[in-house]
Amino acid sequence: MAHFLVLSAVIVVLFSSTQAEVQGSFDDNFSKSCPETHFKTSEDGQIWYLSLDKKAGCGFMTREKYRFGWFSMKLKLVGGDSAGVVTAYYMCTEDGAGPTRDELDFEFLGNRTGEPYLIQTNVYKNGTGNREMRHVLWFDPTEDFHTYSILWNTHQIVFFVDRVPIRVYKNANYTNNFFPNQKPMYLFSSIWNADDWATRGGLEKTNWKNQPFVSSYKDFSVDGCQWKDPYPSCVSTTTTNWWDQYDSWHLSSSQKLDYAWNTIHFQDDSNSDGEMIHMQDAKSCAKACGARSSPFRGIILRMFSIKKLESNR
């Protein structure tokens, strides 16, 4: 059964104009795992604050699990000196780092004051990851809320920032069949200390003089297939739901341009995927877009090459 959950008065979804009213409180839809002192809400209950200090971090997860759909959250990250601090927003098949889990990750890696945040995305299947990719943002994510979204279907996984696709992970029939599409997932978010690796490979440690570190959340939404045991409708995909339809199997023409623009300018050089593809691919993309306008078209056509985001592993 397609289930639409929205914890804001009105939300506009990228691929759908559907609008929905608030459904339930935070506690109706999530369970949290932290001391009560580390979780706070705004007076109207619409903004949630998770804090990290030397004693504990904080996290929450959905009470329901899903298989395929659109998953979105607005976050405002820890400001100032946040080196060593990781804010995570992700999907996972279980509560914990189990040996057979599937997982889709947004991880926001803190940094010293004045240095940019890095986003690290990752994909796990059956407990194996090693698909990390790092991205630089084109704005300061500590000044205001921005939207981070995942589109997941049997054809592709797309990570979005403010409607701009920053990573596309295709179900391309890899020899090792590395595409998570069998197990339903919960949604999680958390803030935690990872100064053994998060900032400059662990060289920059968390400065506990700045505690507590606080990340803010609002407008969480799901437009996806809610998994219901013992006979979930999500076992087989159909074209009934928009995320299973052809238009959601690939990027639109304008999204391809935005994706290429982001790849050129905001993919971090520390990515392991270093294979180069020629500008011919981006030109082909622009040609396919016809007369459709994009604010990044001129930038893309002036560049000579872009990095390939997904290597055939």
From TrEMBL:
Q: Where is the signal peptide?
A: 1-20
- Which InterPro entries does the record associate with it? Beta-glucanase-like, Beta-glucanase/XTH, Beta_glucanase, ConA-like_dom_sf, GH16_AS, XTH
Q: What single Pfam family name could you report for this chain, choosing any that match? A: Glyco_hydro_16
Question: Which species?
Answer: Datura stramonium (Jimsonweed)
- Does the keyword Coiled coil belong to this entry? no
What gene is this protein a product of? XTH8_1
All residue ranges annotated as the GH16 domain in the record: 15-217
This chain's protein is named Xyloglucan endotransglucosylase/hydrolase protein 8
The lineage is: Eukaryota, Viridiplantae, Streptophyta, Embryophyta, Tracheophyta
Alphabetical UniProt keywords: Glycosidase, Hydrolase, Signal
Gene3D superfamilies from the UniProt entry: 2.60.120.200
